[in-house]
Amino acid sequence: MNRRKTRTVPGELVALVLVVLVGCVERTLTISTDPQGALVYLNDVEVGRSPVTQNFTWYGDYDVIVRKKGYRTLKTHARVQEPWYQIPPIDFFAECLVPATIRDKHHLDFTLEPITLPEREALIDRAEQFRERTLYEDK
């Protein structure tokens, strides 16, 4: 009797194929401001001057602070919403079984307001009112 030899695929080869086929998700957040060149902080960490692109891991609310000389400092929250393919349990298939890199790009745009200084006369009037209150009010 002739016995036919059957070949088995080694476990290492299977693991290598699975690792090669595994995809991932690359998440980026780009922050732009008008005017450009403002210093940007995400969750109290300086990330650079706008426009700036930052990799991130988690979706959700971010504290954003934007500063530029001559403009009012902007302190706000921004929500980075997950796409449909990042909702559990779909995210498992998107991150582990799709044989390609998924690029998830988000953009935030902010407009800064210029600082307006009060008129000289109005500033002097306010200073005189403050002096009157502090010196001559009953204690």
Quick structural gist:
The chain is an alpha+beta fold. It is built from 3 helices and 7 strands. The strands form 2 sheets. Strands 3-2-5-6 form a 4-stranded antiparallel β-sheet, with no helix packed on it. It has a 3-stranded mixed β-sheet with strand order 4-1-7.
Short descriptors:
single chain; 139 residues; alpha+beta; 4-stranded antiparallel beta sheet; 3-stranded mixed beta sheet; 3 helices; 7 strands; 25% helix; rod-shaped
Describe how the helices and strands are arranged.
Elements: H1 11-21, E1 24-34, E2 39-42, E3 45-49, E4 52-55, E5 60-67, E6 74-80, H2 90-96, E7 101-111, H3 120-136
Parallel strand pairs: 1-7
Antiparallel strand pairs: 1-4, 2-3, 2-5, 5-6
How does this structure look, described?
Strand 2 and strand 3 form a beta hairpin. This protein has one domain. The protein has three helices and seven strands. By secondary structure, the protein is of the alpha+beta class. A four-stranded antiparallel beta sheet has the order 3-2-5-6, with no helix packed on it. Strands 4-1-7 form a three-stranded mixed beta sheet. The model has no long low-confidence stretch (mean pLDDT about 85).
